[in-house]
Amino acid sequence: MSVLIYIENPNGHIKKSGFEVATYGAKLASSMGTNAIGLILGSATNAGDLGKCGLSKVLQANGLPTNEFDAQSYSHVIAQIAKDHQANVVILSNTANGKALTGRLAIKMEAGSVSGANALPDLSDGFSVTKSVYSGKAIVKYKINTKNKVISVMGNSLQPDMSGQAIDVEQITVTAPTTKLKVLERKTSDGIVPLPEAELVVSAGRGMKGPENWGIIEELATALGATTACSRPVADADWRPHHEHVGQTGVAIRPNLYIAAGISGAIQHLAGVNNSKVIVVINKDPEAPFFKAADYGVVGDLFEVVPRLTAAVKKFKHA
Ligand SMILES: Cc1cc2nc3c(=O)[nH]c(=O)nc-3n(C[C@H](O)[C@H](O)[C@H](O)COP(=O)(O)OP(=O)(O)OC[C@H]3O[C@@H](n4cnc5c(N)ncnc54)[C@H](O)[C@@H]3O)c2cc1C
Question: pLDDT digit string (tens) for 236-268?
Fold first, then answer.
């Protein structure tokens, strides 16, 4: 019996979310009294650092076309490696790729699965996993009764614990199965922390009046080292790219800081952001619903408030 953790390695490098999920798997394995094994498909320059999270073994599987994620072949390989290592629990990140793998793996392993777990499983009475539901208004607890279990973990659910020692990475070779998918086009946004991993997010909505005004949002984001986001109507109107849209139908995020300027705070928007640790709302309407979810609120015109906030951040950083 062991816990297998699939760790994503975009561009040959493991990011914070990878160390988070490794920490999650290592802590779970420890409470189950078993070993945690990390799995990377392809290479990662910092793979050995996974040992610091408490993994007893890190496998680097070669033989798959790693620059073309394919949920069919990846899930096939992960399920096979889980079987080979008697892993009856598989842990993944709840990223777009992780979500695509979770259901497929659950079918292949005849496993009970939970996607978007927000905390470590509770083993006091069987095996229970919690996740946030109803736009973050409730937490549901699922008891998984099957022998095999597949869990994808929401980003920022726990801090990576890297207090251990780096370990040697074990190379294995896998055979890619025949796949029915062909990647025709690949679009990536380079140079910014992707929204699901961002710790600081500056977001704006229809209160911006038009795409030409976004400079003040980008300037604040740059001053803070934050990622930019937006409400859905803004993305629908092509003021901002769709990958920035957060909410029920967009990306769900849990940053440490979420600054929302000119966003009303509709329930569908809150669904994707109300797990943020600190929410700051800037809105000229004191009755805007977002203020009810805010930790800090500024009632005012964003075109005055945002540049002043940027100036204050720059002054603070300079000092
Ligand atoms: C099925 C469904 C799914 C949806 N999914 C999503 C989703 O995933 N994400 C999402 O965001 N929405 C989603 N929506 C849309 C959602 O209901 C709201 O319509 C949307 O979030 C509103 O966007 P907004 O706050 O930017 O715009 P508005 O509602 O137009 O609000 C603009 C805000 O800006 C303020 N404002 C205006 N000018 C200024 C100024 N100068 N300074 C300061 N404040 C100012 C106003 O007071 C107002 O509160 C969904 C809707 C449906 C029906």
Answer: 999 999 999 999 999 888 899 999 999 999 999
**pLDDT by residue (tens digit) across 133-145?**
876 778 999 999 9
Could you tell me if 120 and 215 lie in one domain?
Answer: no
Does ligand 1 lie within 6 Å of residue 100's CB atom?
Answer: no
Ligand 1 near 274 CB (within 6 A) = no
Say how far residue 16 (Cα) sits from the centre of its chain: 10
What CATH number corresponds to the domain at position 97?
A: 3.40.50.620
Structure tokens at 52: 């610091």
Last residue of a domain, one of 110, 138, 173: 173
Phi and psi, residue 50, nearest 5°? -60, -30
Higher-pLDDT residue of 157 and 145 is 145
206 C-alpha to ligand 1 centroid (Å): 6
Q: Is the dihedral of CA 209, 215, 216, 220 positive or negative?
A: positive
Using the atom order of ligand 1, give the atom closest to the CA of residue 272. 8
Is ligand 1 within 6 A of the CB of residue 289?
no
In this structure, what is the dihedral angle of CA atoms 180, 186, 191, 192, given to the nearest 10 degrees?
-70
State residue 8 phi and psi, 5-degree precision.
Answer: -75, 145
Q: Write out the residue range of the structural domain in which residue 200 sits.
A: 195-318
Placement of tokens 């978007």 in the chain: 116
Q: Which two tokens stand for residue 18?
A: 């990878």
Q: Is the CB of 314 under 6 A from ligand 1?
A: no
pTM of the predicted structure, to 2 decimals: 0.76
The whole-angstrom separation of Cα 24 and Cα 98 is 15
Mean predicted lDDT score pLDDT of the chain: 93
Do 152 and 226 sit in the same domain of this protein? no
DSSP at 146:
S
